[in-house]
C-alpha cells in the first residue's frame, strides 16, 4: 500500500481561519483534498468556480496532483487593488510633504 501524503488545506477570513491537516493518497488532486477537508461545509461562501486556489502562494488548478507537505490555499477576492492602495498612500505622503511647516 502506498504511503499517505500529509497536506494542509487553508482558508482565512478577516476574523476566522481554517487549517486542516490531512493525509491523502498519492494521486489526490487539490479539488479532492478541498472537498474531503470539510472547508466547503464550514464556509459556504467558497465558490471554487470563481475563487482561485494555490499551493504555497502559487496559483494552481483544481486538478493539480498533490505532493507531500503541500499547503493548499483557497484565495478570497481582493477588497482593494494593491496598486491603487499604493498610489493613494504615495499621494497622501506627497500632499503631506508639500504642506508648509507650521
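-> sequence recovered:
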Amino acid at each position: 500500500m502506498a504511503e499517505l501524503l500529509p497536506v494542509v488545506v487553508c482558508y482565512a477570513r478577516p476574523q476566522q481561519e481554517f487549517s486542516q491537516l490531512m493525509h491523502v493518497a498519492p494521486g489526490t488532486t487539490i479539488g479532492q483534498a478541498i472537498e474531503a477537508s470539510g472547508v466547503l461545509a464550514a464556509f459556504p461562501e467558497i465558490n471554487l468556480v470563481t475563487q482561485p486556489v494555490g499551493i504555497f502562494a502559487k496559483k494552481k488548478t483544481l486538478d493539480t496532483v498533490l505532493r507531500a507537505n503541500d499547503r493548499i490555499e483557497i484565495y478570497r477576492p481582493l477588497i482593494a487593488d494593491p496598486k491603487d492602495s499604493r498610489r493613494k498612500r504615495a499621494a497622501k505622503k506627497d500632499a503631506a510633504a508639500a504642506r508648509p511647516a507650521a
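The mean pLDDT is 91.
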